[in-house]
# Entry
Amino acid sequence: MAQAQDAGRLRLGVNIDHVATVRNARGSAYPDPVRAALLAEAAGADGITAHLREDRRHIRDADIAGLMAALARPLNFECAATAEMQAIALRHRPHAICLVPEKREERTTEGGLDVAFDQNRLTDFIAPLRDAGIRVSMFIGHDPKQIEASARIGAAVVELHTGHYCDLHHEGRFAERDAELAALAEGAQLAHALGLEVHAGHGLTFDTVGPIAALPEVRELNIGHFLIGEAIYLGLGPAIAEMRRRMDAARA
# Structure
């Protein structure tokens, strides 16, 4: 019975990118993202997410090496689908790699990958990652054609972009928010039916996590910026514990 309950438990991945943002603002060695990741593990995180961007604006190569050496929980390595990032992933062999769109001018990840447009290249790109035993995830919107393309190229996971849903909530556009939530629910159902594991993330807060956590097909949430911000007030451990409590309450 315990094993069955664990199998159905909604996992929380904590993204520690913005600990590195604070560090890099002063060009110092602190705060250390690896230390934050270890605190997140101790607070109940099921995994750690880190996005190594082409411009290294927050996480750096040494952080990935440090995380791989220190973590007891799985590392979800976020990156763009470039030859450089593929080589880094194959060198470190993290538990999972999540491919995201990336533009130098953006402040944070905007929208999801266009897997359908880039299907042939992405099929070839992920093949050596899969051969190395790395779980490959596509960070996409809820568009059915993107979900179907992700299944066709052999991805194991899709992570549905929840940023627009969160923005609509915080702007008070509740009818549009509810329509976006319904579309995310339909996307999760389709992905699950196609044999993909379903994750979700981007922009989630205490106020918005419940309805996403309640989607039965979703197996994992990846949350970062809000938790690092809330840690200023509560501490990282209590912030993660409160997010975990709200996720579990929504799931129940």
In short: The longest strand covers residues 135-140. The first helix runs from residue 2 to 8.
